[in-house]
Design a protein that fits this description.
By secondary structure, this protein is mainly α. The chain contains 17 helices and no strands.
Length: 359
């Protein structure tokens, strides 16, 4: 067995070889396994927790260096049968191999994080890797799987794990332009709250949601549809093109249209309708999260009242202008019931009274 120094040296050389030529690292060289697969094997066969942690962190750094910022679309069987250029075939194979290698790494992190016998230090490293991967590559494939590993870290018993997960997910939300990452994080926290039946250790997850920017009042669906039809009716119709158009002019026009489409795709501009759709879904998801906490507190759960309810009320006050009126009224009635409960602590009753005045 090589010494730790030699093992770390071999790990560093392997990582350097992968990042210097990622394309070559995905294929076999001289009848040897691909370099990206050799790196995974070093992590799987590590003889100690320290070596495994170093290998995972190195893998994480390598994937952050080679993964693209977009989501890879896997070609269907019909598309593979079509005639393709050599460059297109090479690009598709590279992307598919990269997604496969990334999936193996995410799967190993997930198994370690969920296994009861895994060392606490390794769980911390696994969640740290997943948090960094989601924060910096939220649009890449398997992002939901990565988030499912990172989200439970928000309520982990170890403070290092918890702070690492909180920092990574907060970064992902702050860099979110379309609202998709915020929505995914809210869904993950809702699932965590549901699976543990509201029994979270700390309020870090709810504080993360409560720190989100206050959503603006969302337009009604009927109003949006009416507005769309009005714009469509008043849109200036293009003049009928002349019958005789030179072939060169038509081809130049088609090239300009295609170039404009390619530019829109590469610039990755966020569609306004997608942002509006994500905002509606986020308001709905936050309403479910806060409503679940308020309901548990209304039923008399002392821990929920003491630990989770203040954060939920803070988020609910932000959410109220955009939320459904029936949802707000239902929460308001339960909040009043909590404040009137004789067993309610003075601090909790004060939070309820403040929220009731705002709602």
């Amino acid at each position: 067995m090589p010494s730790d120094q030699k093992w770390l040296g071999a790990l560093a050389v392997l990582c350097e070889s992968i990042t210097s030529d990622p394309d070559a690292a995905l294929v076999k060289q001289d009848h040897e396994e691909p370099l990206i697969k050799q790196l995974q094997a070093m992590a799987d066969t590590a003889s100690s927790s320290t070596r495994k942690a170093r290998a995972w962190l190195s893998q994480c750094a390598v994937f952050l260096d080679v993964l693209p910022a977009y989501r890879v679309r896997i070609a269907s069987a019909k598309e593979r049968d079509q005639t393709q250029t050599r460059e297109t075939q090479k690009l598709r194979l590279k992307e598919e191999w990269l997604v496969k290698a990334y999936g193996v790494f995410v799967s190993s992190l997930s198994k370690a994080a969920k296994h009861k016998d895994t060392d606490a230090s390794l769980i911390a490293v696994a969640m740290r890797c997943c948090g960094e991967l989601y924060a910096r590559r939220p649009s890449f494939n398997l992002s939901e799987d990565v988030l499912r590993v990172a989200a439970p870290g928000l309520d982990h018993a170890d403070d290092v794990v918890r702070q690492s997960a909180l920092k990574s997910l907060r970064r992902a939300i702050s860099d979110d332009r379309s609202g998709a990452a915020s929505l995914s994080v809210a869904k993950a926290i809702h699932g965590l709250l549901r699976d543990r039946k509201g029994g979270l250790r700390r309020n870090d997850a709810l504080e993360l949601l409560a720190d989100l920017a206050a959503p603006s009042a969302l337009d009604d669906e009927a109003f949006l549809e009416k507005n769309r039809l009005r714009k469509l009716a008043t849109k200036k119709q293009p003049q009928k093109a002349a019958k005789k158009v030179k072939t060169k002019t038509r081809k130049a026009r088609d090239d300009e249209i295609q170039a404009a489409k390619d530019l829109r795709e590469t610039s990755a501009r966020v569609d306004a309708e997608d942002m509006r759709r994500n905002a509606r879904s986020l308001v709905h998801e936050l309403g479910l999260v806060y409503g679940r906490v308020v309901q548990a507190a209304y039923r008399g759960d002392a821990r929920t009242r003491r630990v989770l309810l203040p954060s939920a009320l803070r988020g609910l006050k932000k959410l109220a202008p955009a939320a459904n009126a029936d949802v707000v009224d239902a929460c308001l009635n339960q909040i009043r019931g909590i404040a009137r409960d004789e067993a309610c602590e003075p601090e909790t009753a004060l939070c309820c009274a403040d929220a009731a005045l705002v709602l």
